[in-house]
Amino acid sequence: MEMDHPETLGWLKDALAEETVGLRLHHHHLEWSWKRITTDSREAGEGDVFVAIPGERFDGHDYAKKASEAGAVCLVVEHEIHGADAAQIIVRNARRALARIARAWRARFSCNLTAVGGSNGKTTTTQMVAAILRRRWGADEMLATEGNFNNDIGVSHTLMGLRFRHRAAVVEAGMNHRGEMAVLADMIRPTVAVLTNAQREHQAFLETVAETASENGLLIAALPESGHAVFPADDPCSDIWASLALARGVKSFTFSFDPAVPADLMCRLDADGALALEGERESFQIALRIAGLHNARNAAAAAAAALIQDIDPEVIREALESFEALPGRGARLHAAERFGGATLIDDAYNCNPDSAIASLRMLAREKAPRIFIFGDMAELGPSSEKWHAEVGAEAKRLGIDYFWTAGEKARAGALAFGIDGDRCRAFRDRDELIDALRELRADGGTIVVKASHSAGFSKIVDVLSGK
């Protein structure tokens, strides 16, 4: 991200003071200006700062000299790069240094900043909030996470995009290990913290749903006294978030789809897909283009976040009524002609047991034949087999017409459904399932593709859509 007003290396040096172990720059370098922070040497150019981050496949230090030759004025590195003309700030940990730069940059701005965390629906909710902010302020006066770049590197780059013209921003925050959210929360320092839900995700690293809720709840702990915590009152972990808000001394703004659980914003999804929202001061309906209770809950979270920022309900309604699902996250497509005009729902980017069951319940209300193509769910820990089986059992209970799986883990779901070689088939891998798609009878029906991203089921979506 290029700066509106180039900063000096003196500012950068101060931002990294606690992380710095050495300097390879002269006093006059401190007045040099820099335009942009980058971690990709291929993008490095005149006036940039290159942060050399060691990764699993590549080490940025191997490309630091190249960045210097491309015109970078400063290298942030963990060891000296010999032969590089650029100034160098040597740090203990380059990845942590990037977060410190982003933290210092974010501190310059006072606009409303919404952070979205939770187990499922983060990206959709973030983009819904972004759509509302765009409708309210215009594209040039708001900032949002692009895609799902929600780890410390992605969040750093998003925050570095903040400018004084921005009236509001929304940042997605994701984690799968203890301690990661603490880093993100410290960087983002939101004014509004949105928690979508707490579900069975990353249980290989976070042993309980309550622990997942507590980790995500660190966004609430990072709020200022004037901040707001937004979360579902009808989530089993809502007490955790309410306690965090109370301890922080911030206001909670809750939403609920359960008539027996009171909240600031009571929500109802009607049979025709209309989302009804009723609060103390407002009551309005939204005709959503995206199906499923899980997406209605995402919309309610986004609406709640907007309402506490005093955004008019009509603006919220207009933004959410024009919102369409993102690729891999429930996007509705037309299947190729050879699949008989079926509707294809691409939900292949992310999956845990609860989101898979939510997709099944959505599918159960769609046109038959109802076909669920299910792949391995990652990072579930010792309960993996049981939870894959739970998905298959739920599909059978709901009367799903075809339940096809690919992958060793997903096979447990097929066994629970009942493998019969027709309605329920278990394939060794994704490519074997793709070969069998020519036998799929989907005329006029609905196909849902659901798996963790690591399963690579986007290729199945490509085949079904005729790409």
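Second entry:
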Amino acid sequence: MIATDIQEKLLTRRAVKQYDPAFKLSQEEILDLLDAANKAPSAWNLQHWKFMVVHSDESKQKLLPIAFNQQQIVDASAVIVILGDKEANKNIDEICAPDIEKGRMTEEIKERLASQVNNVYQNEHYAYEAAVMNSTFPAMQIMNFATLRDLGTCAIGGFNRTQLIESFNIDERYVPTMLITVGKSIKTPRETDRRDIQTITEFH
């Protein structure tokens, strides 16, 4: 796929609300998509996210009322729950280990970085905001890479977070940022327009 084709696909992506319920993505295909999303950037490379894949019919039925009975929840091949990590500072040893092993970072630099990060994470408000903001980066990557694979997606913010956490036993370390349905579209999504870039851009 050449660059112009990629650009055209991404610029014409639209939210899919109607999916083919007979279309199934395998766990391997979903993991491949998530692996691409996992390459997203993050502050200090802390990778403030976790993915919970609602894949089985039973789990999708369980999620349905939590997401206010949106039909796409059960018709999509999978629903990816994006979880923001409020304790991403705890990832630093695991994340820095390959850099130290490959000589890209010294233990001294890692300890200095860890001290800086842990100091910032004493602020719970920052930890929450960082979890939400940084977890949106892989979320967009999921939608973009799915588009390049001719899959439809829809980001969903309308769901009961408290019920989701309780029903799926989500650790309090994580905040559910959004749901993303993924599957095969059975209807051309409705086109939408965007505001003129000149009206929403300022140069200083």
